[in-house]
Amino acid sequence: MHYGAIKQFSIENGPGVRVSLFVSGCSHRCRGCFSEKTWDFEYGSPFTAETEDRILQMLAPDYIAGLTLLGGDPMEPDNQRALLPLLRRVKREAAKTVWVYSGYLYEDFLPDGRANCESTRAFLSLCDVLVDGPFVEAKKNLMLSFRGSENQRIIDLRETEKAGAVVELFLDIRV
């Protein structure tokens, strides 16, 4: 897997100060995407053990709320496989929240879903929030918190697991 960037102090991709990892590779190719260059699975730098160590160091301070994965699409099956060891370490060593952004819908990760692979269940079990759905330029709304278009959902994965149905978080901050 490759990644395009790591932002050490991000406040736009989840609550609090977060570390944001922009992975490379996205098959959705949403019109109006703010990060088109990360569509290419080979864009940027290789994700290595050193990259993983660096992210864990960035997550260490108490004022860092968590890790956000976006891109590209971290939920592309090859990216899920590559990121799973990082997520295990984050939960074990940093105990921070994990947000993940995906152009897939939550339903695509169910057993018969098009983005489900052998890593999906473990991957999602280590994430706290999934922002799902493709960016739809016609539904772009700059007044929304933590997402770009009105079709995207902010899903509480822990509560969704308990309820057996999608449980959304409503975190909109209107200006």
Structure characterization notes:
It is a single chain. By secondary structure, the chain is α/β, with parallel strands linked by helices. β4, α2 (about 75-95) and β5 form a beta-alpha-beta unit. Helices cover about 25% and strands about 20% of the residues. It is globular and about 40 Å long. The longest helix has 18 residues, at about 75-95. The mean pLDDT is about 95.
Q: What structural category arises from helix and sheet content?
A: alpha/beta
Strand tally: 7
Main sheet summary: 7 strands, mixed
Integer-rounded radius of gyration: 15 Å
State the order of secondary-structure elements, H for helix, E for strand: EEEHEHEHEEH
Total helix count?
4
Fraction of residues in helices?
A: 10-25%
Can I get a quick summary?
Helix content is 24%, strand content 22%. The chain has 175 residues and is of the alpha/beta class. Strand 5 (97-101), helix 3 (120-125) and strand 6 form a beta-alpha-beta unit.
Keyphrases for this structure?
globular, alpha/beta, 175 residues, 7 strands, seven-stranded mixed beta sheet
How do the strands and helices of this protein lay out in sequence?
Layout: E1 2-10, E2 17-23, E3 45-46, H1 49-59, E4 64-71, H2 77-94, E5 97-101, H3 120-125, E6 129-132, E7 153-156, H4 157-163
Parallel strand pairs: 2-4, 4-5, 5-6
Antiparallel strand pairs: 1-2, 1-3, 6-7
